[in-house]
Amino acid sequence: MNKIKACIFDLDGVIVDTAKYHYMAWKKLAEELGFEFTPEQNERLKGVSRMKSLDILLDIGKINVSYDEKIKLAEKKNNWYKEYISNMKKDEILPGARELLELVRNNGIKTALGSVSKNSMTILNGLKLTKYFDAIIDGNKVKNAKPDPEVFLLGAGELNINPKNCVVFEDAKSGIQAAFNAGMYSIGVGDKKILGKAN
Ligand code: B16
Ligand code: MG
Fold it and tell me: Staple 53 to which of 7, 45, 87, 164, CB 3.0 to 4.6 Å?
């Protein structure tokens, strides 16, 4: 592979254990709407934007609602999610994540966050992790959710590093595909059966 000059990290499910909170909030919304939402179905929502996730969820529940209603449902889910993450503790930083960030930085390798979550800054600041990133790309900066490569290409751009010298760490199938689409090397964090496309 090419020389590694930058590492780009996804947030939910890679740096912090927030993927479970997204699932809890979507599951609660599904229950309120009268249907079951399984962990297997939840895999389709990982790395996907809030509104697109809602569309997938409503499709699973075979529910049709107006655009205005969708905005209200997404807000409801986000309020539950924010309530869950407001109580997060430092031990919810995933094992080895902080150590890896320190290690790569100590070796002169740049770091970026590549998340489509609009709540990224709340989480990073809350857990005092912001200082580990040379660039931060979050859901407020990107227009296209993974598997679109935009989030990772913006990260490489802010770091001024060629995409072919970047390594992406991802827990979502859509994120591994986004890294591939960006021409970057990828490391899957999770189940090999789901993330098999990762380098
Ligand atoms: P929010 P990541 C993604 O974060 C999550 O994987 C996905 O489940 C979530 O819907 C998305 O962020 C949007 O999050 O509602 O907080 O804006 O994995 O790209 O760090
Ligand atoms: Mg993720």
Answer: 45
Q: Which residue's CA lies nearest to atom 14 of ligand 1?
A: 117
Q: What is the mean pLDDT of residues 124-128?
A: 95
End-to-end alpha-carbon separation of the chain, Å? Answer: 10
Instruction: Name the residue of 8, 9, 12 whose CB sits within 8 Å of the most ligand 1 atoms, as the mutation to test its pocket.
Output: 12
Q: Give 190's DSSP letter.
A: S
Does residue 45 have its Cβ closer than 6 Å to ligand 1? yes
117, 169, 176, 186: residue to mutate for ligand 1 pocket, most atoms within 8 A of CB? 117
pTM: 0.92
Looking at ligand 1, which atom is closest to the CA of residue 10?
A: 20
pLDDT, one tens digit per residue, over 129-155 is 999 999 999 999 999 989 999 999 999
CA of 104 to the centre of ligand 1 (A): 24
Query: For the chain, what percent of residues have pLDDT higher than 90?
Result: 93
Summarize pLDDT for 58-78 with one digit per residue, the tens: 999 999 999 999 999 999 999
